[in-house]
TrEMBL record:
Protein name (database record): Competence protein ComEC
Stored Gene3D superfamilies: Ribonuclease Z/Hydroxyacylglutathione hydrolase-like
Domain of life, source organism: Bacteria
Organism the protein comes from: Pseudomonas delhiensis
Cross-referenced Pfam families: Competence, DUF4131, Lactamase_B
Keyword Secreted carried by entry: no
GO biological process, alphabetically ordered: establishment of competence for transformation
Transmembrane regions: 43-60, 222-243, 255-275, 281-297, 304-322, 328-346, 358-377, 383-409, 416-436, 448-467
Subcellular location: Cell membrane
């Protein structure tokens, strides 16, 4: 049975690693091969093929349910019910809509934003005018994958609300959750109400950026929303209550205590998960606990791995796309590590020693997986969890749940919630200090072979004492932490036009130097410098910038600079508009200069006659082995003419289209003189400015200039000096990314 379950799970998990979905026509022969294998008693192979076929079929159905391409960008009237708990921040209300009704076929789950919208409540029904968009996110080689997150959450389209009217008030369980949230926010909990809402209802929207950063730094992110440990704790307490009554003789003799204890634990766990809205993490935890209790009742002879494999298979059969979520891998890996680290060991462990060993297992065992998923490592994680887990699980969560259930008795309920808040306040103070002294470590992305070696090394390190070659495990871990930066050879320059939405950021690396031209925009707390630029720099192993060149002071070019400089030092900060940069950035003015770095020529230029901000853009020209690239920021046509006058006979093989492809730049004379092979356009899809301009695109087409669009191809990469082609981040990405 165990082999068959593992084969089925592997088939279901294979979906996660596909660059493209196989055509539907190929699935029928696949099922036929599986049936033939069953006939020949090759059960494991048959289950693997069936699992893979089911996962692909499920993904095809999910993709067919997404917004049709012809409706992308259209504004439609529709009706639907607000689901989940809406979140409001900086004048923007974000929420999800289900049970969609419209004249056209639309996805049944939408994620919407309403700028300046009214207060929404879960369970309300609205009629809305929405500009719909197909699921689409930034596509860089590193960083958070928004499209994978949307796919795992079952979101078929996103959109922005233009107008709307409420058709019906809040009703049903979702309205009850909303009212519960408001009660929790209204009580005195020492200012930690948002944390209590996250722990009780699984809604972390009230936590700010600083809160999430602190939790990430200390490796305690998993504790501050409803997680598997919280649900397991409640189920374990209910199980222990029935078992304790039976041991004391207080349980009715006519009722078998074991089935009743399991039933009580399952009911409590699913009830807690239902309170949290049965989102993917809570659903996964409920299924896992149910499988453990089923194993306790009927399948104990199958071994301790059976409930974990069973839960894995059930979760993947219900929703194979859940494997796109990092939380899926981390939760199952954590349980597997605990089973591997404790099962089959001789002797009994003292509680304090077992608890310390569990944290060591997590710290060492999850490190390769965290790096493989592009997540940071927490140096203080083991110590922080050693304190935080029992504090949260044994004190805060029981107090918060009990206080929430007793809110109808104000003195008792509010008193318990105040006590939970006081405990949280003390714990968070300690975590804040740990975060200050030991922030999260963001290593460069290791190659796949080093991750595989590290996984093997982890299994050896955590194996029972006395196993031969066990010390070799530590040696196998080392390549994962060893720098593997693939810097360009001498005389070449690697250029990456990053996907930062409606903005610009270009990274240029030579053999031993790194320049960053612009840092993308910042909109409120959403900072593209932090979200897109920094993950790329860290993933490539860039720990220091030789020059951060901000073309001018507009937000779409300089907004992300502060986040970049707070994380990475820059030897020089240059800008065409140093006085317009946000404090405390202090830049030197752009002027005509030339550098030779690792055999690559960099030169800057500034238009002295500029009359506006765009005209003050600092121009950068890069040349490597006879191949060149030109970046002009938002320089208008008059500035381009001035650049041509000061650089007679200049050419550029690659041109980053000025002002995101606006018709105010890339003039006919400029394009004719430069004669570029291709133009690179950095902009966002459906931007309000209509970039790139049809006039500019026509101008490029007339001169035979190919256009590479970041909004379509993702982040663009080329090796200057090789005279090769440009590569988009979406080319070899996973099947869930729109090509």
């Amino acid at each position: 049975m165990r082999t068959g379950m593992m084969a089925l799970a592997c088939g279901l998990l294979l979906l996660r690693f596909l660059p493209q979905l196989p055509p539907l026509a190929a699935l029928l022969p696949l099922v036929g091969m599986a049936l033939l294998c069953l006939y020949r008693r090759h059960r494991a192979v048959a289950l693997f093929l069936l699992g893979f076929a089911w996962a692909c079929l499920y993904a095809h159905q999910a993709w067919e349910g997404r917004l049709a391409p012809e409706l992308d960008g259209r504004t439609l009237w529709l009706e639907g019910q607000v689901t989940g708990l809406p979140a409001a921040a900086e004048g923007i209300v974000r929420f999800e809509l289900e049970d969609i009704q419209a004249r056209l076929a639309l996805p049944q789950r939408l994620r919407l934003s309403w700028y300046g919208g009214p207060q929404l409540r879960a369970g309300e029904r609205w009629r809305l005018a929405v500009t719909l968009r197909r699921p689409h996110g930034l596509a860089n080689d590193f960083g958070f994958d928004y499209e994978a997150w949307l796919a795992a959450d079952g979101i078929g389209a996103t959109g922005s609300v233009k107008d709307g009217q409420r058709l019906a008030g809040a009703a049903g369980p979702m309205a009850w959750r909303e009212a519960w949230k408001e009660r929790l926010l209204a009580v005195d909990a020492r200012g930690r109400n948002a944390y209590l809402v996250a722990l009780v209802l699984g809604d972390g929207s009230g936590l700010g950026r600083a809160d999430w950063d602190m939790l990430q730094d200390t490796g305690t992110l998993h504790l501050m929303v409803i997680s598997g440990s919280h649900i397991s704790l409640l189920g374990g307490l209910l199980y222990a209550l029935v078992a304790g009554l039976a041991r004391l003789g207080a349980w009715p003799a006519r009722l078998p205590w074991l089935p009743c204890a399991c039933a009580a634990a399952v009911a409590g766990a699913w009830g807690y998960g239902w309170v949290a809205g049965l989102e993917v993490p809570a659903l996964r935890a409920c299924l896992m606990l149910s499988m453990v209790l089923l194993w306790r009742l009927r399948f104990r002879r199958q071994g301790v791995w059976w409930p974990l494999l069973g839960a894995l298979v059930v979760v993947l059969l219900v929703d194979p796309l859940v494997s796109l979520s990092p939380g899926f891998w981390l939760s199952f890996a954590a349980v597997a590590l605990l089973v591997y680290g404790f099962a089959g060991r001789l002797g009994r462990w003292p509680v304090w020693l077992a608890w310390g060993r569990a944290q060591g297992l997590m710290a060492l065992g999850l490190a390769p997986l965290l790096l493989a998923l592009g997540l940071p490592l927490s140096p203080s994680g083991a110590l922080a969890n050693l304190l935080a887990v029992p504090c949260i699980e044994l004190l805060v969560v029981p107090l918060a749940l009990a206080g929430s259930l007793l809110l109808w008795l104000p003195v008792a309920g509010e008193g318990l919630l105040w006590l939970a808040g006081a405990v949280l306040d003390g714990l968070l103070g300690v975590l804040a200090r740990l975060s200050w002294y030991s922030p999260a470590w963001h290593p460069m992305a290791p190659p796949a072979w080093s991750i595989l070696l590290a996984l093997a090394g982890t299994l050896l390190c955590l194996a029972p004492a006395g196993l031969p070659l066990r010390p070799l495990g530590l040696a196998l871990l080392l390549p994962m932490f060893w720098p593997h930066a693939s810097a360009p050879a001498h005389g070449y320059a690697e250029v990456r036009v990053l996907d930062v939405g409606q903005g610009l950021s270009v990274l240029v690396r030579t053999r031993s130097h790194a320049w960053l031209y612009d840092a993308g925009p910042r909109r409120g707390e959403f900072d593209l410098g932090e979200v897109a630029v920094l993950p790329t720099l860290r993933g490539l192993g860039v720990r220091r910038l030789d020059v951060l060149l901000l073309s001018h002071g507009d937000n779409d070019h300089a907004g992300g600079a502060r986040a970049v400089l707070e994380a990475l030092p820059a030897a020089r900060l240059i800008s065409g508009e140093p006085r317009r940069l946000p404090a405390p950035l202090a830049a030197e003015p752009c002027r005509a200069e030339t550098w030779w770095l690792d055999g690559v020529r960099f030169s800057t230029w500034y238009w002295d006659q500029a009359a506006d901000s765009n005209g003050r853009s600092c121009v950068l020209h890069i040349e490597a082995r006879g191949e060149s690239l030109l970046l002009t920021g938002d320089l208008p046509a008059a500035g381009e003419a001035a650049w041509l006058a000061s650089h007679p006979g200049a050419r550029a093989d690659w041109l980053v289209a000025g002002h995101h492809g606006s018709r105010s730049a890339s003039s006919a004379a400029f394009v004719r003189q430069l004669a570029p092979r291709a133009a690179l356009v950095s902009r966002s899809r459906h931007n309000a400015h209509g970039h790139p301009s049809e006039e500019v695109l026509q101008r490029f087409a007339e001169r035979g200039v190919r256009v590479h669009d970041v909004a379509i191809a993702g982040a663009l990469r080329l090796l200057l000096g090789q005279h090769g082609e440009v590569r988009g981040a979406r080319e070899n990405a996973g099947f869930w990314r729109e090509k």
